[in-house]
Specification:
heterodimer; A: six-stranded mixed beta sheet; two-stranded antiparallel sheet; 12 helices; 13% strand; B: mainly beta
């Protein structure tokens, strides 16, 4: 199959036609840069913390954030921040890839861990927390990871946290919130989340917002990034896994489904954010750690206190 | 044909001639979730495969 723009062999069939290696790389990078510009994800004065795991999404977003800043002469300081959750036979592999990548691309890397912060790895803490609360692993992991990213990004002087969330991730979260009637949370997602007004939260931004899992993996492959596939042993226990499977089955039958979900959501997002502003729910501070919290004790500390 | 499955960390040997799309259908793999590689080249779904090919099937799904 030939590229629709030149005579080279195609590597992917996009909705508007087949595309070759070079045109795909150009298409992908342009899409990411347009996303950054359209949603104003990066400012000239920013100090940028890229949340990294060593997987395909975080390495790609780290590489392209640096490339974007170089292209537009943005003098931003960029560093990587990785969280070691303590998941045996999983995270150590991706952290090793992450260290190599940061070294190769001359990027400072800071690593923090559940063990150091909360006294136990996720593997050790999860059974105890689950016993008391029935919380799933992904729930515990997500709360602690977001806590550590925000806390340490702030400590390191970041004004933005760039994450590798892509179109698949976001379409899944939109459906999860919809299916579980979590409309309150719906206004807190999107290409840019967190609030600039509240000092306690560093704004999180998602340059890969319009890029699918498949496009990101293809990009890493064509660019020669060392990305080994490794699956979190807890991944298949989560609600998200079922949603992911369902969405991929739907996408195979009805091309453009995921993008349709994203566009519909973006259309509604201003109203959801406005509703949040009108509700004017103030965020207080956790009495344990001082970080932002809707309750006296934040979720991360509540779980730590159970150990 | 030798098929190396990245996500399952396994290898399958089968008799097959046909398109990438047909191979994925035979293996019950959703084409949205993988990239198919032959000789370090990414293949589109209409590409014809031969019985003596070695094929890598890479997962595009985020692992965690």
């Amino acid at each position: 199959m030939q590229c629709h723009k030149c005579e080279q062999k195609a590597v992917l069939e996009l909705q508007h036609g087949p595309i070759c290696k070079n045109h795909f790389i150009s298409y992908f990078e342009t899409k990411v840069f347009k996303t950054i510009n359209k949603f104003q994800l990066i400012d000239r004065e920013d100090t940028i913390c890229v949340a990294t795991s060593g997987g395909k999404d975080s390495l790609t977003v780290l590489y392209l954030t640096k490339k974007y800043c170089a292209k537009y002469n943005i003098p931003a300081t960029i560093f990587a921040l990785g969280v070691d959750e303590g998941i045996m036979n999983y995270r150590e592999k991706t952290i090793s890839d992450l260290k190599d990548f940061c070294k190769e691309h001359d990027t400072p890397l800071h690593l923090v861990s559940n063990k150091e912060e909360f006294g136990k790895t996720l593997d050790e803490a999860y059974p105890i927390i689950n016993k008391g609360t029935k919380k799933k692993t992904c729930n515990v992991c997500g709360v602690w990871r977001r806590f550590l990213l925000n806390k340490h990004a702030k400590r390191l002087g970041a004004t933005k946290v760039v994450t590798g969330h892509n179109l698949d991730d976001e379409a899944q979260v939109i459906l999860m919130n919809l299916f579980k009637a979590n409309t309150k949370l719906a206004g807190r997602i999107g290409p840019s989340t967190g609030t600039q007004e509240q000092d306690q939260f560093i704004q999180r931004v998602k340059p890969l917002y319009m890029c699918s899992d498949k496009e990101v993996r293809l990009y890493t492959l064509l660019k020669g990034f060392n990305v080994q596939y490794s699956e979190c042993p807890y991944a298949q226990t989560g609600y998200r896994y079922e949603i992911q499977d369902m969405l991929n089955n739907f996408e195979a039958k009805f091309k453009g489904t995921k993008l349709g979900i994203i566009h519909s959501f973006l259309d509604l997002l201003p109203q959801l954010k406005q509703r949040d502003i009108e509700k004017n729910e103030s965020v207080g501070s956790c009495i344990e750690c001082g970080e932002a919290s809707n309750n006296d004790t934040c979720n991360a500390c509540s779980m730590r206190l159970m150990l | 044909m030798k098929v190396i499955l990245e996500r399952e960390q396994s290898t399958k040997v089968l008799t097959f001639n046909g398109t990438v799309q047909a191979l994925l259908k035979e293996l019950h793999i959703n084409e949205e979730t993988v990239l198919v590689i032959r000789n370090n080249t990414v293949l589109t779904t209409e590409e014809i495969l031969n019985n003596n090919d070695t094929i890598d099937i890479l997962s595009v799904i985020s692992g965690g």
